[in-house]
Fold this sequence. Notes:
Elongation Factor Tu (Ef-tu), domain 3; alpha/beta; 5-stranded parallel beta sheet; Ubiquitin-like (UB roll); 318 residues; single chain; 19% helix; 32% strand
Amino acid sequence: MLEVNVTRKVVEAEGICSFELCAADGSPLPPFNAGAHIDIHIGGGLTRQYSLCNDSKERHRYVISVLKDPASRGGSTAMHDTVSEGQKLSISEPRNLFPLADSAKRHLLFGGGIGITPMLAMAHELHHQGADFELHYSFRSSERAAFIQYLRQAPFASHVHLHDDSGSPAQKLDAPALLAAAPDNVTHLYVCGPAGFMNFILDTAQIAGWPEDRVHREFFAAAAVDASADSPFEVQLASTGRIYYIPADRTVFEVLDEAGIAIESSCEQGVCGTCVTGLLEGIGDHRDQFMTAAEHAANDRFTPCCSRAKSPRLVLDL
Ligand code: FES
């Protein structure tokens, strides 16, 4: 856990604030790579993950940007309404579940709305590497889009393509054309944004024949799941043989946590991958958005925070 001060809070666009965080004791912050996020302990038991959007060469600060989402579970509203300059916050060290692929010769970055945040850090890093990349930023309107001016003046501005959904047809994102033009073996695709945007890009990529190992994604929030037909099942731990009953209305994580079985977790809604655990027996009802369809089909890993079972019992590698 790190103690930081909020040294700047800036309104970037309608409903979007950036926060600059510096170590409370003035020391350099732990290094990170583009795509990393931090957990922020906002208070009142709320912990939320936010992508770092500044240049990873900077060690004196982390910058995050937060969209106030009234439909969220309270984290973004608390960040906007209760966190102010000068305040101390506890944060985790950066963790990266959305890294740039070392093997890629070319990178296509697609950011939708607030999904631009990890892409900013990626663009900085790729620019430093002299890499071949394009950053496509789609937004509903310029009033609701953060960092437009910044991107126009950035040292990597020539790699940036802005797509205003409320603007002229000529500049709108043409994902089928962009993705059809790049199904080679050296380009990697990165997508972050609201679920509708992500699904559109991911579906388009799949139709264009992109293999999953060259498509990288980061969801902000889980898609809604119909839990009305959920039923109980059992989970057995391979290390002890102990069996736990998972009621229809509780998650594996909740039951095991209550029993003192520590599983590292972060988002608790299937998007971050922190809780991924080996699945040794049984058939998982995989509900996370972290793993790909092929990984779900492999059925050898499991997210206890949200996934359930299609067989009466699962044996977990715990
Ligand atoms: Fe994030 Fe389970 S805690 S996927």
